[in-house]
Specification:
The protein has nine helices and eleven strands. It has 321 residues and is of the alpha/beta class. It has one domain: Rossmann fold, CATH 3.40.50. The chain has a nine-stranded mixed sheet, sandwiched between helices. Strands 2-3 form a two-stranded antiparallel sheet. β8, α5 and β9 form a beta-alpha-beta unit.
């Protein structure tokens, strides 16, 4: 049975919005969230055992600047946990949507109550390329730029979600945000945009999961609302997942002129209990997880490759911790 992924994207459309090939690699007008495309994608053939993420079979219920009424109705009364997903570097539109479906299915496979999710993805315009020649880091730098340019669009996406989240929560459903890798760079731009445009504190998420975050490790220090310093005003708790074995973030640190990444061993001054109270911040060191085959890619994808890490996230959803 196809997996359903509700989505928003600030990729420029190069054709009909119901055609996969229309979702391009450029950012729509950075100052106008009304050009963000919203829709529903149906994904088939994901295989958790083989670690294959499937393919988009159809795209429907398309609107500009907002969710369709069908999506609004479904998301306002989902009957399960809402999972919002923001992808990282080197993800095409199809990669982002199928990865969201894959995430939904492996959470469900945990068998834990609360880990059954309705998934909503935001796809910012990554090139979907790991390396471009003759400059190997050009794709990375270009993705970092477009992730940063997506701040207003993601903030507007959050604003569109806010009443739906309130309705879903009133019906007993919880809401989670999962951002991976460079998706955290896009998230910091969104948090800054949220507050700079006059929005106040909002209880959007029960848990915010920052997985292998390719964002500066002192991101929480830019008070009062710079970078991710005000993220705690948009959710009940923040969980950071970091690993010193993350080879991709070591390369990122080099490309970023030695700037340490949040996903390497957590935030700067993480032992400061007054700055990071345990009721508000949870820090998970994934360095010691050895239950997956470690290589360059998997060292950065442990949030889904490691059964232990996946179980830890599902336990959050199940309110075990």
């Amino acid at each position: 049975m196809p997996a359903t992924v509700y989505f928003a994207t600030n990729r420029v459309l190069n054709g009909a919005a119901d055609q996969l090939q229309s979702y391009g690699e450029s950012v729509v007008a950075p100052s106008n969230p009304n050009f963000v495309t919203y829709g529903t994608a149906y994904v088939e053939d994901a295989n958790l055992t083989a670690d294959t993420i499937g393919a988009i079979k159809s795209i429907q219920d398309i609107e500009q600047g907002r969710f369709s009424q069908n999506a609004v109705d479904d998301l306002s009364a989902p009957g399960r946990t809402l999972l919002v997903f923001i992808h990282g570097f080197d993800n095409s539109f199809e990669n982002a949507i199928t990865r969201a479906a894959f995430n939904q299915q492996w959470f469900a496979a945990s068998g834990l109550a609360g880990a059954e999710t309705t998934v909503i993805a935001f796809s910012w315009p990554s090139l979907g390329k790991l390396i471009t020649l003759p400059f190997p880091d050009a794709a990375y730098r270009r993705d970092q730029t477009t992730a940063g340019q997506s701040g207003l669009h993601i903030a507007a996406f959050f604003a569109n979600l806010e009443p739906l989240i309130s309705s879903a929560r009133a019906k007993g459903n919880r809401v989670f945000l999962l951002t991976h890798s460079m998706g955290n760079w896009a998230l910091q731009a969104a948090v800054e945009s949220w507050f700079s445009h006059g929005n106040g504190d909002a209880y959007l998420f029960d848990e915010i999961v920052l997985a292998a975050a390719d964002e500066v490790y002192n991101t929480f220090e830019f008070l009062p609302t710079g970078r991710l310093s005000a993220l705690d005003r948009l959710g009940r708790r923040i969980s950071t997942y970091a690993s010193e074995q993350d080879a991709v973030l070591k390369l990122s640190m080099a490309v970023n002129l030695g700037a340490k990444r949040l996903g390497q061993d957590g935030p700067h001054d993480r032992a400061n209990a007054s700055r990071f109270p345990t009721a508000k911040y949870r820090m998970v060191d994934c360095t010691g997880f050895t239950d997956y085959s470690l290589n360059l890619a998997s060292s950065h994808q442990y949030y889904r490759r490691s059964p232990g890490v996946r179980t830890d996230m599902a336990n959050i959803m199940a309110k075990i911790f």
